[in-house]
Amino acid sequence: MHRDEDRWGPLPSRLLVAAAAACLVGCSPTTSRSDEAPSSAVTAGPADAPEPLANPLTATGNEVSVWRQDVSAAPTSQRSDEFVSELVDQVEDRYGGVAAFNVHQFGMSSWTAPWWVDREDVQFNDCQDRGYVPDGLYDGMEHFVDVPIPPHAVPAAGADGHLIIYSPSSDQLWEFWKAERDSGGWSACWGGRLDGVSRSDGRFDGFSGAGAAGVAISAGALRWEEVLSGNVEHTLSLAIPDVARDELSWPASRTDGRDDDAGAIPMGQRFRLDADVDLDALDLHPIAEAVARAAQRYGFMVTDSAGAVAVAAEVGESAQVPPGVQAPWPVLLDGTPSYAVMEGFPWRELEALPKDWGEPGPR
Fold this sequence. Notes:
By secondary structure, this protein is α/β, with parallel strands linked by helices.
């Protein structure tokens, strides 16, 4: 995961999300979705255009999802000052001290698969030169077998090429890393499937899944509808450059971290924004303000390593929409470069939660 590379431009003093609503015909954060009657989520488009992802891991009915946990009353880690100082350093040492908002590249290209979409096998692309096909892709769990990829779906731009597929009719979610499509069909370097996802905690088995932490990274991506409504009701994924090599914090089950320093931040570490921070007094971009309000209640979770501290967005309904469908992110950005969106975010006011906070006890 990396940051977007737009040219620097002026940051507006303040945008009104309500103004964006006037530019989006037929767009509502409460629009109902069904894979029984596919339609565009923004403006009228092709009848077979897949809808943006309605992520079951952030739905109010999923009481076991790690992404729905309210962290506002959670205790603070004894290492909070240490971890927050390290995170602030990682923000300030790169790209002018502003964290990335990955919406044009390196985000999550997410698609809902209608029940009628044909299923196909995804081919294994050995981009890491393993020299063999890993177990579980075509045997066992068969993560790459019978995937219902909508005809208009495309992976996210950028080297990660994330592709997220949700099938409401089968209650399954797929996440792929370095996904590509050519004349021979779809391929990916890695990925995984969650079954019974509407009742899942969002953690992949074994080494499956597209993220470094072993959790469903698509659930922590910011959606344009959430920005439009001002309500982000889930934990947000946070990618950082330096992750601890051997330390984990639940819900992470693995790491690609390489930092051996004593104060290195572990994969899965959770942060929240101090509830006493007066966000109305800050001159934040509306997207950054929506992130901040979510961080006060649901917090951040470190889910990946990256070239900069980065918050990811769901991009499946942006540059990748079918012809004739209004793209919402450019409207919400309103001329602000994506890498300037998080300018002024109060990273120093974060608090780190204790190691393994929220992990279920013995049942």
